Amino acid sequence: MLKKRKLGRNISEITVGEKLVINTKIEDKDLLLYLGLTDDANPLYIQHDYASQTPLKKPIVPAIMLTGMITSAISKYLPGPGSHIKRHDIHFLKPVYHYEQLQFWFEVKGVDIEDHSITIAVEALRDEKEKVLEGMLAVCPPYALSLLDSHVLENF
Predict the structure, then answer these.
(1) How far is CA 134 from the centre of its chain?
(2) Mean pLDDT, 10 residues at a time, over the chain (156 residues)?
(3) pTM for the structure as a whole
(4) How many Å apart are CA 118 and CA 86, to the nearest integer?
């Protein structure tokens, strides 16, 4: 028997001004897993000797990995499972280094019922004070599903 998964919130349940805060720490295991999965061997991400000779002075976290943390928060929490990002515009203001504590702030800035989308602003702070990224996302919340009947299974 399949376990029914709970969907995120319907667009009618989301209001302008809602906020979400996610705290995370960048650990070696997360970086190595990401770099292994993507086969990304950029020395700026993992080689301390190389990075120490650049203006950055030490290895940085890949921007796309930070983007993944944002998309994960959308999929898990705001609006939650069943949602997807239609557009994102993220500015990486400062490098993020290994082992740093980040705080991601999300805020609903707009709800468009007709387009079935919401606009979410995001920013990430290092140690709760220094902004390292900011952006805007257009997100499609999960669609309300109709009741299951025998026709639903015809496509499987």
Answers:
(1) 12
(2) 73 94 90 87 90 94 93 94 95 95 97 96 94 97 72 55
(3) 0.85
(4) 10
